[in-house]
Design a protein that fits this description.
Helices cover 44% and strands 18% of the residues. The protein is α+β, with helices and mostly antiparallel strands and 224 residues long. The longest helix has 42 residues.
């Protein structure tokens, strides 16, 4: 049986969209010129909840006994961030020196931006799973017992979209099997896994697997 009933439900009620459309935010897409398609999970969630819509992943992809949520997250790639903060950029022309108050304020502001992005991401991860389990699957399978499905959550970020130095560092870490405490992907992946893949009793919680990809890696592994 697998995901066939769910696929039929989607086909009857929704149309697929390209990843270019699904990854669009403020008229800018993370995935450029892709003809590969998936279903719009924001649209599906709005169908189930016409009012008071919960947070939702951008896309949902079905594959035999596997359901993959996909979230395209921009905002992590910035010229200045918490990890590459440069106090020299906080120089005040009037005193011809670095303004400590402004530097501290700017650093806190950057930390708040990153915390808000992660908080929003964690909320989407939890509420997407809740919508699937308690609303979407019962609607698609009606009174049937649905099969044991693997549920994945894939996060695609813009972290290294235009940053070859960070990208090369990630590649070298992977090749050397290094667990770098400054590695953005590793930290993000571990934090989401801790929240949603492993319960306190070491049993499966919300997801079977959570993976974090750069745009380049997602295009390589999923679109080629």
């Amino acid at each position: 049986m697998g995901t066939s009933e769910l696929a039929d439900f989607f086909e009857q009620n929704f149309s697929k969209k390209t990843y270019t459309e699904l990854s669009a935010n403020q008229n800018k897409s993370l995935i450029q010129s892709s003809k590969c398609e998936a279903y719009d999970f924001d649209e599906i969630t709005e169908y189930i909840f016409p009012q008071n819509k919960p947070s939702s992943a951008d896309a949902i992809l079905l594959d035999k006994n596997r359901i993959c949520f996909i979230e395209f997250k921009s905002g992590f790639h910035r010229k200045m961030s918490r990890t590459n903060f440069d106090r020299a950029q906080c120089r005040c022309e009037k005193i011809d020196a670095i303004c400590d108050d402004y530097a501290n304020l700017m650093k806190r502001h950057l930390q708040n931006i990153e915390s808000e992005l992660k908080s929003n991401l964690f909320q989407k991860t939890a509420e997407s799973r809740w919508t699937l389990e308690y609303h979407l699957l019962p609607e698609a399978y009606k009174n049937k017992a649905y099969p044991d499905l693997q549920i994945f959550y894939i996060i695609v970020t813009d972290k290294v979209k235009e940053d070859p130095i960070d990208a090369m560092g990630q590649i070298m870490d992977d090749l050397a099997n290094i667990h770098n405490e400054d590695n953005f992907y590793e930290k993000m992946e571990q934090s989401v896994k801790h929240l949603y893949c492993e319960s306190r009793y070491r049993k499966k919680a919300f997801y079977d697997k959570v993976e974090v990809y750069s745009v380049q890696d997602f295009e390589t592994f999923f679109l080629n």
